Amino acid sequence: MDAERIRDFLRKLPHVQETVQWGNNLVFWVGDKVVGGKMFTVVNLDEDGQAVISFSAGPERYHELLENEGVIPAPYLARIHWVALERWHALSANELLDLLKDARDLTYRKLPKRTKDLLALSPAALQEAVQERRKLLAARANEQAAAKAAAKYAQEAAGKTEAGRKAQAAKKAVKKASRRR
């Protein structure tokens, strides 16, 4: 088993999206994360000695899987019953593929109704919904950045930040010096 075979298999499952995040990791989602999708598998493409793949095992299979040599609690995600494989052959290829399909199914069942309803749309309608959501999120981010910049400017003008206090002190010193003349 290797990353390319896993990728080919996962991309054939219904409603699966793929992103590259956190350096060089392939992250597989049930549904696009923009519309409420949730990740279910992370494949590490770096050969950095870390786990090669992590996935949602669910509470029923979690402890059973940890009994296998080369299967460990997934860093950062063990609390939600994710496991990680230290090497590709820690489990048989068929068992791993079955577990990944189960991880996708388990994650799909946990999606909110709103997200499942979006995933039930035609591919074109879903793509349109994703694009609209991305536009909305970009607009919100721009508004938040503008509001943050305005708030920082207002604080500086009011002398509530160190830079603002220094600027006000400098203005007072200039005024005082000009009065003395």
From TrEMBL:
Residues 150-181 are annotated as: Disordered. It holds the Pfam family YjbR. InterPro entries: YjbR, YjbR-like_sf, YjbR/MT2646/Rv2570-like. It comes from the Bacteria. Residues 168-181 have a biased composition (Basic residues). This is MmcQ/YjbR family DNA-binding protein.
